[in-house]
Amino acid sequence: MAVRRPRIVRLLSAALACAALGFVIWVVPIRDRCWDPRAPKTTHVSVSRQPSSCILHLRSGDVEVDATECARLTCEPGVASTWSHVRVGTLGWLLGLYALGTLAWAARWRALLGLAGLDLGLLQAWRVSVEAQAGGVLMPGGIGGDALRVAWVIGSAKRAGLSSPTAIVIASVVLDRCVGLAVIAGVASTLGIASGGLHAGPMALVMASIPFAFVAGIALLRWIPMELVPWLTRGPVGERASPILGYVRAPNAPRAIAIAAALSILVAGVQFATIRGLIFAFGATVTAETWVYVGTAMVFVVGAIPALPGAWGTADVAYVFFLGLAGVSAGTALGVSLMYRLFWYVSAVVGALLYLVRARDLDELGAAPSPGLEPRP
């Protein structure tokens, strides 16, 4: 299921990502950036710290001052000092929490996949999901991972002799994304308003409206008489849309979507807790808690833009901007972005290894893979 974008779109996406990366490089200081609080902010200078002094990197040349004078400066931590004070033990716990989130994510997709008449075991769904993450790392916006999930299910269904139209399987993946977005937006607005009132302004209210819009859209697709929208049931569009409409209008769809939404609350909770934990691990102080959650949700939305693979540039600039509204320094925000991406890459590496093990075992056996799919009554 290869998706090839027009050349101009690829060029614009690359330009956007490069501009974002350039902005991050320009904004985030490598060394600490300090200034005398009694002087104008135009006195900002880069500072290198020594055991008993610090060096001010002035335009006129480097100047060394003693520890007492250095302590009087107000400083914004740079990348070097941000990483030097990170709590390594906390990172280990957060990686375990992130791994728990991948299991909940797989369970959510498994619940939605059941609507396609396929029963996939939880561990098998998790394995396919983390294997797909390896593809998501290599493709912009994570579309590579979604394509791999669709291809695996369709291939396994055929080997098991089951009927699974491509449109229905794609619908399960799309619905998985939509449920995730709606719940993340709802949880973000709830946590944001609970922690800081309406300081996030219209953005928190827009976030709060997304879950209602999602529910209204599902209800409309389920209950609207199809004769009122004949273009959805006839012709080329109807040929492709009919399986998806059947998927959403199935009698057990509300129950499956409700289960997926409940699991998505756990997924969103893990993601927000991981980001908040990373801010703590880097020793940052938050001044506007509401922007941690509303801003993180916006980062996830921005990260879905198909620019560079892994959302390099676009996600980083979003972290720097929105966590900056929460009072987190640019260096720390970049550290949070890179560490969260590292967690994603660790999960992707695990998925890639599982895929290689599967391929090796199948090659040794010279047999077709066990599909792990059964028809659901």
Would you mind describing this structure in some detail?
This protein has 377 residues and is of the alpha+beta class. The protein folds into 2 domains: 32-84; 88-375, no CATH class. Helix content is 67%, strand content 8%. It is built from 13 helices and 7 strands. It has helices at residues 7-27, 67-71, 79-84, 88-113, 122-138, 143-159, 166-196, 202-223, 235-248, 253-281, 289-303, 314-325, 330-365; strands spanning 32-35, 45-49, 53-58, 61-66, 74-76, 118-120, 373-375. It has a 5-stranded antiparallel sheet. α4 (88-113) packs antiparallel against α10 and α7 (166-196) runs antiparallel to α11. The protein is elongated. The relative contact order is 0.14.
In short:
This protein has 377 residues and is α+β, with helices and mostly antiparallel strands.
Structurally, the number of domains stands at: 2
Q: What's the rounded overall pLDDT mean?
A: 76
- Strand content bin: 5-15%
Strand elements, count: 7
Radius of gyration: 24 Å
Helix run count: 13
Percentage of residues in helical conformation: 55-70%
Structural class call reads alpha+beta
Please tell me what the overall shape is.
elongated
The major sheet is characterized as: 5 strands, antiparallel
Reading the helices and strands in chain order gives HEEEEHEHHEHHHHHHHHHE
The largest sheet has its strands arranged as 4-3-2-1-5
Poorly predicted segments: 365-371
Measure the end-to-end span.
Answer: 28 Å
Question: Assembly type of the shown chains?
Answer: single chain
